[in-house]
Write a structure and sequence with these properties.
single chain; alpha+beta; 4-stranded antiparallel beta sheet; 14% strand
C-alpha cells in the first residue's frame, strides 16, 4: 500500500514539474532574475551618486533590488498561468500599500525599477539591458545640465532667526534681492526675532546675496531656505 502511495506522489510531482517547465523555463527565469537584480543595483549606485533628493538616498535605494525582482516574480506568475494570475489579483486586493513619496525623483526611480522588472518578467532581458544603456546616459546628461544651471525653484519659504530687534532692517536687507517678499510670521524671542517670509528667488546667486545681506546685518543669524514649487504667491 505504501509503495502505491509513494508511486502516486512521484507521478504527481513529475506532472507538476512538467507543468512548471511547460509554462516557465527555469534557466531563463534564473537568468532574468540575475539581470534584473544587477540592473537594479546599478540604478541604486547611479541614484546615490547623482540623485538630487534631499532624503536619505542610500536608505531609500535599498528597496530597488527587492522591488525589481518582486515585480519580475509577479509578472512571471501572471504570464505562466491565468488561474494563478486571478489568484494573485485576489491576494493583492486585500493588501494596501502606503508609502510617502516626498520627492518626484524618488517616484521616477521607482517607475524605472518597475519597468526593468516588467521586462525581466516578460522574458525580455536584452530589451532591459538596452533600455538601461539608453536611458541612463540621458539621465546623466540631464543631471549635468541641471547642475550647470544651478537653479532653484522660484517660490520659497525663508526663515530667519536673528538677534536684530528691528524688523525693518532685516526686511530691507532681503528686499533688493527678491521680486516678491511677504512676511508671514514674526516671533519675538529673548535675543531678537524669528521671522518667516514667502519670497521668490530667481537663481542661486540671488539666494547667496540674501544670505550675505542678512549676515552683514547680523553675523550670528540663522537662515533656513525651503523650496516650495506649489506655493501660491
Amino acid at each position: 500500500m505504501s509503495v502505491v502511495i509513494n508511486l502516486k506522489e512521484m507521478l504527481d510531482f513529475e506532472k507538476y514539474l512538467n507543468d512548471f517547465k511547460s509554462t516557465i523555463d527555469l534557466g531563463d527565469f534564473v537568468l532574468n532574475l540575475l539581470i534584473v537584480a544587477v540592473l537594479a543595483y546599478l540604478v541604486k549606485l547611479f541614484y546615490i551618486r547623482y540623485g538630487r533628493a534631499i532624503s536619505d538616498r542610500a536608505k531609500f535605494s535599498n528597496n530597488f533590488i527587492p522591488l525589481g525582482v518582486g515585480t519580475m516574480l509577479i509578472i512571471a506568475v501572471i504570464k505562466s498561468s491565468i488561474a494563478l494570475s486571478l489568484g494573485l489579483v485576489g491576494a493583492l486586493s486585500i493588501v494596501r500599500f502606503r508609502s510617502a513619496i516626498k520627492d518626484p525623483e524618488e517616484l521616477t526611480m521607482l517607475f524605472l525599477i518597475i519597468g526593468l522588472g516588467l521586462l525581466g518578467g516578460a522574458n525580455k532581458p536584452v530589451l532591459a539591458i538596452v533600455s538601461f544603456a539608453l536611458i541612463f546616459p540621458i539621465l546623466y546628461l540631464n543631471f549635468r545640465l541641471a547642475k550647470r544651471k544651478g537653479t532653484v525653484s522660484n517660490k520659497a519659504f525663508l526663515n530667519v532667526n536673528t538677534g536684530l530687534s528691528d524688523l525693518s532692517l532685516l526686511t530691507n536687507a532681503i528686499q533688493p534681492h527678491t521680486k516678491f517678499l511677504e512676511i508671514k510670521r514674526i516671533d519675538s524671542v529673548n535675543e531678537g526675532l524669528n521671522a518667516s517670509y514667502f519670497c521668490t528667488v530667481n537663481d542661486m546667486d540671488s539666494l547667496q546675496k540674501i544670505i550675505t545681506a542678512i549676515k552683514q546685518e547680523d553675523a550670528s543669524a540663522k537662515v533656513s531656505f525651503v523650496e516650495q514649487p506649489d506655493l501660491l504667491l
